[in-house]
Design goal:
By secondary structure, chain A is of the alpha/beta class. Chain A contains 14 helices and 15 strands. A nine-stranded mixed sheet of chain A has the order 14-13-12-11-7-10-9-8-15. A six-stranded parallel sheet of chain A has the order 3-2-1-4-5-6, with helices on both faces. The longest helix of chain A is centred in the N-terminal third of the chain and has 24 residues. With 504 residues, chain B is an alpha+beta fold. About 6% of the residues of chain B have low confidence. The chains are: A alpha/beta (446), B alpha+beta (504).
Chain lengths: 446, 504
């Protein structure tokens, strides 16, 4: 990395000098001194707590486990933060979240600010909240995200922020509107708010492993979870309760879950892949229409490769991590750097516990840190908007998914132009015409 | 001392004068630049009053805010740097030149109202200078998608691609720019083949796929088959010329594409790599058995899709036609050699279906080898060795022949149904031969039209060639060798014909 960057910065310097010369010739010149050395990159220093400020109210859309968790992360982020509105499609989910907040956090959400139904997101956003926490199944994110921006709310959006090209492009555009309007957006790819990752990124960006060569990333885990259909449930109710198993709701697990690791590689490479060839299949999944494993070869525009694999099957070797190779060494992206002789040449220093032993945990949970950074951005004016990053990671994962589903190479350009818009035409508790059939590669009509 | 003082004084004087002159120059320069950038100054010369008219009707003049945008705010880069002055000088010189030397009446103003022309005198930087926020909240969802697309492709796109008539109103209906294309997943799967009732061009649909292809109705007629003895590069087997009558038939407008051939392959592919036949995927005893998987990359890595399918054997092509007949209820087959030449000539009688002398086009001649052949005409109609870049090319790269057939010469050699014999024509009786089908038996099949790899002399309409079955399988590592795929030619494909049943 050193070598290349120096060359390019020298070239840039010469370019600058030429431009300055031209300005000088016009009689407008100024004496400008420039330095050939690349400035060392310094990772942002995250606050341990958000600064105090006027009361900020947040509403939660999607009151499942993650929504409830995110609400608590938000309250933990600093002083003068409140949850004042809740919305979910199911009454029992909303009640559970409301009780949890009452019992564990002493937060009482008023009856008139609790909304149930497919339009609950609108009603939550229409209350006098400043921030909306979007944690409904990913399918619904693009619509609620855009509505939140149009309503001038700051946003925390859980990943992934969309499940199909139409949805994700809508999120990208709304993210740019938010930027124009000064609305902050934090997202749930929390590794970017995790102090050890952030420090490792600093080391890599400063050339500790040389030029980046390739990367692998993994999310291989046991079965996630499923819900069996109960008598009396409509198709819609069943699918919503079982949402991590349906393409139209979750985007499949490469998009829904593995996007974390793909995002890390994009982050370290400072770009996104432009094409993907992958495969996957379905062996053990009890419900839904998704695959339970994917293996994808992603290619960047400079022909570097990232290999990604993800699996949700019991009784197999598990691994959730990234590994990034450079010309001088390699890193797990999280906390260690090795050279090619097998020496550990750098390790992140975790804070020590009360007993003086390393805790092996970052000082602030990355989930809390995300909300701290969001509130910090709102209160200090240090602008934060992660929409583009997460969208690029989601589109990358979608390329991999579509390649595995079809068996064909899928390009970034295709994703940016695709009219694929998953899900039913209307949302109501009733029949949904989406059969539980997983795609067969090589059969897409041509 | 005196001299020195005087020198000092004169230097002071010089500095003063320079400073005054510079100030004057800058002041006047600034005034000139400002004055020559007013609308009035533009109108003084610009002899196209409709420019002002259309501007006054446009959103850059007539809008809710009451703000209007001046000529130079779009037609020059933003002021304040060298680019501005250079552009000003360039457009100024251009205007002065044409004011003096061009008859304004002869200028095609409409041609200047195209994106291609307008990007030459309208500056994106100037658009962006005012329209800094490309994502205002009020932006429509189509607008969002368009600006998202622009933000990812700024180098290739101009604001004018979508906003051509923002500065000057036009009655032309501006079609919405379609960024979102329907992809494969959305395409209709045909359940029924096309029905043909009249003798006219039709589009065949392959049931069970989203694939269709065009068939051209070829009227019957009489023509002279073969080449006259005087034709350059004529081979012995191209004569003697015979009068041949051809009955009406339909012919594929294009060579069979990979999409079409793979539909056949996918529906019929046989088990394993063996060419002996076990069963079929269709599960029917009398169903057609198609190719075994190919050895290697049959498309040579050039890509499939609409590119012509290549490297299948004659047997595979013939089986394709039988399969196509079975699933469409029509009679598809390979063309006879006579049908092929009749269609390729398209009513013409020369060496090609367009005007031209093979000696000018061919690299065979020493002169052409040194100075390069004259390719202007032939390039328009034929993909051959001078313009193919050593591979097959997609549809739409050349002009069709008079019957509307594309790539009938060049691109890929096309199988015919006939056996090859060097004396085929002399075996035909004199007088008019009706729908001849060549010899009754033989070793190799006739292929016609030449390929992307052929010299201009080999893409003449009368030029004949034939398969080289063994040679084309030299490196097939399988024993027995495949009956479906050639390993050692890249130049052969085919085109289908469909019979016309007049009683139908």
């Amino acid at each position: 990395m050193d070598k290349k960057t120096n060359t390019s910065s020298r070239r840039k310097f010469i370019g600058d000098a030429a431009a300055i010369g031209a300005l000088g010739a016009l009689g407008l010149g100024a004496v400008v001194s420039s330095c050939n050395r690349r400035p060392e990159y310094t990772a942002p220093v995250f606050p341990v707590q958000a600064p105090d400020g006027p009361l900020l109210k947040a509403g939660v859309v999607g009151c499942g486990g993650r929504g409830t968790g995110a609400a608590i992360n938000f309250i933990n982020a600093g002083p003068n933060l409140e949850i004042t509105a809740l919305g979910d499609v199911f009454q029992h989910r909303l009640d559970r979240c409301r009780n949890e907040l009452r019992e564990k956090q002493g937060v009482e959400v008023a009856d008139e600010n609790c909304f149930v139904g497919f339009d609950a997101y609108k009603k939550v956003i229409d209350t006098d909240i400043d921030i909306v926490i979007l944690c409904e199944p990913p399918h619904f994110r693009p619509v609620s995200f855009e509505y939140a921006v149009q309503s001038r709310k700051h946003i925390f959006a859980e990943k992934p922020v969309g499940v199909d090209p139409v949805g994700i492009r809508s999120v990208m555009a709304a993210g740019k509107m938010a930027e124009a309007a000064g609305l902050n957006v934090a997202v749930g790819t929390q590794r970017r708010h995790q102090r050890d990752y952030v420090k490792t990124f600093e080391m890599v960006k400063n050339g500790e492993i040389g030029d980046l060569v390739s990367a692998n990333c993994y999310w291989n885990q046991s079965k996630l979870w499923h819900v069996n259909r109960q008598p009396g449930w409509t198709d819609m109710e069943y699918m919503l309760r079982d949402w991590v198993n349906w393409q139209w709701l979750s985007g499949d697990h490469i998009v829904e879950q593995h996007v974390h690791n793909i995002d890390v590689v994009n982050w370290f490479f400072e770009k996104h892949p432009v094409s993907a060839v992958g495969f996957g299949g379905r062996h053990r999944r009890p419900t839904g229409d998704q695959y339970d494993f994917f293996s994808v070869d992603f290619v960047f525009d400079d022909n570097r490769h990232m290999h990604s694999m993800c699996r949700q099957i019991d009784g197999c070797t598990n691994n959730v991590s990234e590994i990034i190779f450079g010309t001088k060494g390699y890193t797990n992206a999280q906390n260690k750097i090795w050279d090619y002789d097998g020496n550990l040449i750098w390790e992140y220093q975790y804070p020590l516990g009360e007993n003086g032993e390393p805790t092996n945990r970052v000082a602030v949970s990355p989930y809390d840190q995300t909300h701290i950074n969001l509130v910090n951005a709102i209160r200090t004016g240090e602008y934060l908007n992660e929409t583009q990053n997460v969208s690029e990671a989601v589109i990358t994962a979608m390329m991999g998914r579509q390649s595995a589903y079809t068996g064909r190479e899928v390009t970034w350009g295709e994703m940016m132009e695709s009219s694929m818009d998953l899900g039913p035409d209307e949302y109501r508790m009733g029949p949904v015409d989406i059969p539980p059939v997983a795609p067969t590669p090589g059969t897409a009509p041509s | 001392m005196v001299r020195r003082r005087s020198y000092k004084r004169s230097r002071k004087y010089l500095v003063l004068v320079t400073a005054v002159l510079t100030a004057l120059f800058l002041f006047l320069g600034d005034r000139i630049v400002r004055y020559t950038s007013t609308n009035e100054f533009c109108y003084a010369c610009h002899a196209h009053p409709h420019a002002e008219e259309s501007w006054r009707k446009s959103a850059h003049y007539d809008n809710r805010t009451g703000i209007y945008v001046q000529c130079t705010e779009c037609h020059l880069p933003p002021p304040g740097n060298l680019d501005y002055l250079l552009a000003k000088a360039k457009h100024g010189a251009h205007s002065v030149y044409h004011q003096i030397f061009t008859d304004i009446e002869t200028v095609n103003w409409e041609a200047k109202r195209t994106v291609e022309a307008a990007v030459g005198f309208t500056y994106d930087e100037s658009c962006i200078k005012c329209h800094q926020n490309l994502f205002p909240m009020q932006l429509s969802s189509d607008g969002q998608q368009a600006h998202l697309y622009y933000s990812q492709n700024e180098d290739e796109l101009s604001c004018l691609n979508c906003h051509m008539f923002t500065g000057h109103y036009s009655d032309l209906v501006q079609e919405g720019v379609q960024f979102i294309v329907d992809q494969d997943v959305e395409r209709e799967i045909f359940t029924e083949p096309s029905t043909v009732k009249e003798f006219e061009d039709f589009t065949e649909k392959i049931p069970g796929t989203a694939i269709s292809f065009e068939m051209v109705a070829i009227e019957g007629g009489v023509f002279q088959m073969g080449s006259p003895p005087g034709e350059p590069y004529r081979q012995e087997d191209e004569g003697p010329v015979r009068d041949v009558e051809i009955s009406p038939f339909f012919m594929g407008r294009l060579e069979v594409s990979w999409d079409e051939f793979l539909a056949f392959y996918n529906q019929t592919a046989a088990e394993g790599r063996q060419d002996n036949v076990y069963a079929t995927n269709l599960g029917e005893v009398d169903a057609i058995t198609g190719p075994t998987p190919p050895w290697g990359l049959p498309d040579q890595g050039w890509g499939m899709g609409a590119r012509p399918a290549i490297t299948m054997t004659w047997h595979a092509a013939d089986t394709y036609c039988k399969w196509l007949s079975a699933i469409t209820g029509k009679t598809y087959r390979l063309p006879t050699e006579a049908e092929w030449e009749y269609a390729a000539r398209g009513g013409t009688t020369g060496p090609y279906f367009f005007d031209g002398d093979p000696r000018k086009f061919s690299r065979d001649r020493l002169w052409n080898r040194i100075f390069g052949p004259d390719t202007a005409v032939i390039n328009t109609y034929v993909i051959y060795n001078e313009n193919s870049m050593a591979r097959t090319q997609l549809p739409g790269t050349v002009q069709p022949n008079p019957f509307g057939l594309e790539h009938i010469l060049g691109n890929v050699y096309e199988f015919t149904g006939d056996w090859y014999a060097s004396d085929t024509y002399s075996m035909y009786p004199e007088g008019v031969v009706v729908d001849p089908t060549g010899p009754d038996s033989g070793r190799e099949r006739v292929i016609r039209g030449g390929s992307f790899n052929s010299d201009a002399s080999e893409v003449r309409v009368a030029a004949r060639s034939h398969t080289r079955h063994e040679q084309w399988q030299m490196t097939d590592p399988q024993i027995p060798k495949s009956i479906w795929w050639y390993t050692d030619t890249r130049e052969v494909g085919f085109r289908v014909v469909c019979e016309w049943d007049q009683d139908n």
